[in-house]
Specification:
Elements (H helix, E strand, L loop, with lengths): L1 H27 L1 E2 L11 H5 L3 E4 L2 H12 L2 H6 L8 H28 L2 H10 L12 H11 L6 E2 L1 H10 L11 H9 L7 E2 H12 L25 H9 L3 H46 L4 H25 L4 H32 L8 H18 L3 E3 L2 H22 L4
Antiparallel strand pairs: 1-2, 2-5, 3-4
Helix pairs in contact: 1-13, 1-14, 1-15, 1-16, 3-14, 3-15, 5-14, 6-14, 7-10, 12-14, 13-14, 15-16
């Protein structure tokens, strides 16, 4: 059971960094040479360094943060040279404590420097835009139907609150009475509810790109999240300065309460996942037996595929915008996903093993995570340009990880 749990953690992270990462390069590559359209089809286009994806500096930073998540996996490898059960338990405990420390540090870091949250919010914007950069009305209406819980073709104030909290809108003009401002800007008819047309108009205003600084073309929607206020940033800053100190302190107290509540939910969620881990593994084992599928194949390939397929489609769709901003946000989402998968998954797994005193030998899956994440992390941490042919390298690394696990388990006796 423990081995299957680790296989799920390893399978999800490796799949994101190989198959999904490679697909982003495939669908996001474009000609970045000075003379667009100069590349011919075929091998010349495939091997050209001009046909590629480019990212910003922040994407490299998220890749470096992702690399930090391999530290607990590196510590676990020490157990392979130990023969005593007590020594292995100490290594597991140390790795568990490091994982918890990294998770807490990551959460605190996002509280005080929330640029990662901002980028995740910006990643949602391409879903509201089509390939031409115009509002995607069909998708906006789909979101409307999800928010309209009672299906009466109108969004109430309560339902709008779910939208605002769900996508974590943060901006200088939204900190005080943001819900009232939202209703005012969406509800043009003044009937205290939002119709489909009002919702489409409001979201379209939010995501509509603004002309770039040189006056040519339209910039991406990054940073254009002030659909609740048409004022300029300078005006909003001045407005914030005029807010009474008592109101600011009250808002800060509310912010800290929300953050404390989020931390409690996170702890409760981890506890629930620890309790459900064993029944989940037993179910997967029963499924594998009934379907005559090796348990390793189910936990390492099938389950991670089922978990990540929805996110993978969203990432590929975002990459098809073929802009530096879209690619940067897409790859950042992958790196953040791998970090949380590694740290959260390993924390829950090691807590389960240590608390229940399960018999587990550090398996090949943990080494696969260490190698794949390290290789991809180093490469993506020092580069902002990925030629089209790098997708082949990413794709190849997935079967290589499977082969490595097979060799270690079949010929070297690893679990």
């Amino acid at each position: 059971m423990a081995t299957m749990n680790m296989s799920m953690v390893a399978g999800s992270g490796i799949m994101l960094l190989t198959l999904v990462w490679g697909s982003v390069v495939v669908f996001g590559s474009s000609d970045v040479s000075e003379s667009p359209g100069s590349l011919n089809q075929g091998l010349k286009k495939f091997f050209s360094t001009c046909y590629c994806v480019t990212t910003d500096a922040e994407t490299r930073s998220t890749a470096r943060i992702m690399m930090v998540s391999v530290i607990p996996f590196l510590i676990l490898q020490v157990a392979k040279v130990l023969s005593s059960t007590s020594g292995i338990r100490i290594v597991i405990l140390v790795s568990l404590l490091v994982s918890i420390a990294l998770l807490v540090t990551y959460c605190i870091y996002q509280v005080f420097t929330p640029w990662i949250q901002d980028r995740r919010l910006d990643f949602l914007l391409p879903g509201f835009l089509n390939a031409n950069g115009d509002p995607n009305v069909s998708y906006i209406l789909e979101v409307f139907s999800r928010i309209d819980q009672n299906h009466n073709k109108y969004i109430s104030e309560y339902e709008l609150r779910a939208l605002i909290l769900g996508i974590q809108i943060r901006d200088v003009g939204l900190e005080i009475d943001y819900l009232e401002k939202a209703m005012k800007n969406f509800d043009k008819s003044g009937d205290s509810r939002i119709s489909e047309k009002e919702f489409v108009d409001g979201i379209s205003k939010w995501v509509n790109a603004t002309p770039s600084a040189n006056g040519q073309g339209q910039g991406q929607a990054q940073g254009q999240r002030r659909f609740l206020s048409s004022k300029s940033k300078e005006a909003l800053d001045e407005q914030q300065k005029q807010v009474p100190k008592k109101m600011k302190n009250k808002h800060m107290d509310k912010t800290w309460r929300n953050q404390l509540k989020a931390a409690c939910f996170l702890i409760i969620g981890i506890g629930i996942m620890i309790l459900l881990a064993t029944p989940l593994m037993e179910t997967i084992q029963d499924f594998s037996t009934a379907a005559s599928i090796p348990s390793f194949l189910s936990s390492y390939v099938l389950i991670p595929f089922a978990i990540n397929i929805g996110q993978a489609l969203q990432l590929v769709t975002s990459a098809q915008h073929k802009t530096e901003n879209a690619i940067s946000l897409t790859l950042s989402e992958i790196y953040n996903g791998v970090f949380m998968n590694n740290i959260m998954g390993l924390t829950i797994f090691l807590a389960l093993v240590y608390i229940r005193n399960l018999s587990w030998d550090v398996g090949a899956a943990s080494l696969a995570v260490l190698i794949i994440c390290s290789v991809m992390g180093v490469y993506t941490s020092f580069s902002t340009k990925f030629p089209f042919w790098t997708c082949i390298l990413a794709y190849i690394m997935y079967p290589i990880s499977l082969l490595m696990i097979y060799v270690l388990t079949s010929y070297f006796g690893w679990t």
